[in-house]
Amino acid sequence: MSRTNQGIALTIRKVKKQYGQRQVLHEVDLQVKSGEFIAIVGQSGCGKSTLLRLLAGLERPTAGEILQNGQPLKKINGMARVMFQNPRLLPWKTVYGNVSLGARHIQTKEVKKAQILTLLDRVGLRTHADDWPATLSGGQQQRVALARALLSRPPLLLLDEPLGALDALTRMEMQQLILQLWQEHRFTALLVTHDVEEAVAMADRIILLRNGRVALNAPIPLPHPRQRSQPEFAQLVGEILSEVMNPASLAHQSLQRKDEPDELHQSEREIFSGQETDEIVRSLTARTFFDRIHFK
Ligand SMILES: Nc1ncnc2c1ncn2[C@@H]1O[C@H](COP(=O)(O)OP(=O)(O)OP(=O)(O)O)[C@@H](O)[C@H]1O
Questions:
Q1: Residue 194 carries which DSSP code?
Q2: What's the pLDDT tens digit per position in 190-212?
Q3: Any idea what the Cα angle at residue 68 is, between residues 73 and 80, rounded to 5°?
Q4: Which of 225, 227, 231, 273 lies at a C-alpha separation of 20 to 30 Å from 61?
Q5: CA–CA separation, 160 and 163 (whole Å)
């Protein structure tokens, strides 16, 4: 069930990122189709989150270009929403209040309320609308973050290890929920994950980054719903894991097919004001760097 349309959502062309003397991304080339679900895997420090920050427009490439629907990426990408491992909910706002942070684009109060409640229903939290984030489990908090991210119907969802802190069962439930919403809302998704099984369970295509370079760009040829018990599933997980773990090995033949570049299309999707993204995303990035400094 790959439900991509023919348009190219993102073109990443010869993108480099350097911090001081350190070259984190080296000439990354990648095309992402509209509606495609991409998983980015790779060892710690290979540049996964850096690539996601560039796509969110939070940082600029040192060289190369990123096009979104054929246009150069704006400074803050108003068409994207971001989810992190930490759901980053505001503790002084209720579940409803936190989700409504993603709704500044909705003018009418009634419409806003209806859309928030529909989405809360969809993520299974309608009865928790008036609860405080601290009273929710980690999985429930991520459901709130997901509802907040999707309220504005973003064309692009950037997921930076959003399920990394959840227990195995909750994690699988969230994978299913994200996949269902992806199928319903038809957004383009880029998921950074350390979990190759998660990547194979969810993505149309897996990108392996190694030392800031694309080492593997492989479609996952399994239909949804994917069963972890299928031999093909286990085989793909094994092959990709060996690629992740063994930098010296050549990519397996079965994983080496690269997508043919499609023509660029100007998207007809709604352009959001991006104002609320700016705000949320800025505060989130600040805390991401805080976490990085303190926990790495
Ligand atoms: N603002 C920054 N200044 C300097 N170095 C940075 C900055 N951001 C990232 N780096 C470095 O760039 C490299 C890649 O970081 P990045 O977070 O993209 O890796 P990652 O693959 O997402 O890692 P992980 O899986 O551990 O989150 C790391 O060595 C990191 O320390």
A1: S
A2: 999 999 999 999 999 999 999 99
A3: 80
A4: 273
A5: 9
* CA trace torsion 201, 225, 204, 84 (10° rounding): -50
C-alpha 267 – ligand 1 centre gap (Å): 31
pTM reported for the whole predicted model: 0.83
This complex has an ipTM of 0.97
3-class DSSP assignment, residue 63:
strand
Q: Where are the domains of the chain?
A: 8-295
Show the ligand 1 pocket: residues with CB < 6 angstroms: 19, 22, 24, 42, 44-50
Q: Where are the alpha helices (DSSP H) in 37-167?
A: 48-55, 95-100, 109-122, 138-150
Q: Does domain 8-295 have CATH number 3.40.1190.20?
A: no
- Kindly give the number of the ligand 1 atom that is closest to the alpha carbon of 209: 21
Q: How far is the CA of 10 from the centre of ligand 1 (A)?
A: 22
Residue 135 carries which side chain, given as an amino acid letter? Answer: T
